[in-house]
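step: validate -> pass
step: tokenize input -> pass
step: predict -> running
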Amino acid sequence: MSKTILITGGAGFIAHHAIEKILNETDWNIVTLDRLDFSGNLNRLKEIVQDDYFGRVKVVHHDLKAELNPQIRSLIGKVDYIAHLAAGSHVDRSIDYPMEFILDNVVGTANILEFARTQDNLERFIYFSTDEIFGPAPGGVKYKENDRYNSTNPYSASKAGGEELVVAYENTYKLPAIITHTMNVFGERQHPEKYIPMCIKRARDGEVITIHSNAEKTKAGSRHYIHAKDVADALMFLLPYDVSGLEHDYGGARCQKFNIVGATELDNLELASMIANIQGKQLNYEMVDFHSQRPGHDLRYALDGSKMKNMGWEPAPVYQRLEEVVNWTLNNERWLTL
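step: predict -> pass
step: emit ->
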């Protein structure tokens, strides 16, 4: 019998890549739950959901700041899996309007967890979190899944709060939940305000690209970039994975956490140079002090991906993925002008 998966934020950037993979590789039915704000775009789903797939995808409109009432629950129906990707994720906006993010990412997570614990046959609940809960990573440090939190902005704090609710529901109600940490995801149909599509456009047009750096403007910030297709692949790897044999955290915590991380760390100057080189363009850039330009952001983030690697999963090489995205974006310029 075919499975059904509920994906929150289904019209969002990462989630629509997950939907595309599920449609192409399984016979599952998909329910997306979305409020369709500025981060949710049904045009993403329109492009990936071909005519013969329409019977398998149901879009339910709902804002998770409100509990799932009987009508919404009826529209969703029974599900086998839940992937909770819906979230407010704009760091700058979280600094200006922190309560928005507490409502979206803490209260919203509580509401979907309350729905999840009524599902008698739920096989897995996956909460998508972020590397930013760990805060800045000093040189040489890569955070493991169960390292301490050090949130430096309301967005990351709200995601950490959501994580703790998931852990609590695992401990209290035996909800079959796991948590993932992703960082700096890129890919086709990303919002043009994000760094990589912005760099693609500015390199194409010969404009200056801002490189956030240390105060001396000598060292660019760095990240582990990963394609959304690899995140979707990791999702499908984790959904059926038997976590019972994995070692529990100290203290006996059962809720497993997984870092989904790009294999190669790149500083933002290297990244911008790659994007310009792929286009055959000269890079015009300016190094700026990241703290004065973007308070609440961190110069370096880094996650340790060894747990997933030891389990048998690795992402594709970042340069290969980056070249794919640059070429696709240049051929689909409408996604640079939304």
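step: describe -> Residues 25 and 236 are 10 Å apart (CA to CA).
step: cleanup -> pass
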